[in-house]
Amino acid sequence: MTDFDYGPIEFYAIGFDGDRPGPAVLQAIDDLVAAGTVNVLDLVFARRSPEGEIEVLELSDTIDDGGAPALDLAGLAGQDDILYLVEGLEPGKSAAILVVELLWAKAFASRLWEAGGAVIAREGIPAPVVNAFLSENAE
């Protein structure tokens, strides 16, 4: 049996008004970790100044009370990744760049590999889009 050290990972850019997300963001991430859904590999914050400049903040620069989650692979999101993900960030807004391992998919990926298969394409649809579509098309 093939056991991968890590399952599939995903990068998320989560946008916010203002220069940094509130503490509820870290709580939502902690809830996912506690449920065993994801493993947080990296988390950084970026903000675009009113002049249009991007500033990248490490997690430790944004947490005052020591309540930061443990990061398995801090630094995994490189500068190029971050700049790509926040390309459309408007001045005066911020984003959390979250890199997570999908724990629910780890065993599935191992079994696919053993069977000679692999995921060759994936497309995500954000929850607001799904819900808007379903509410517009409800019978």
TrEMBL record:
A Pfam family the protein falls into: DUF6325
Annotated protein name in UniProt: DUF6325 family protein
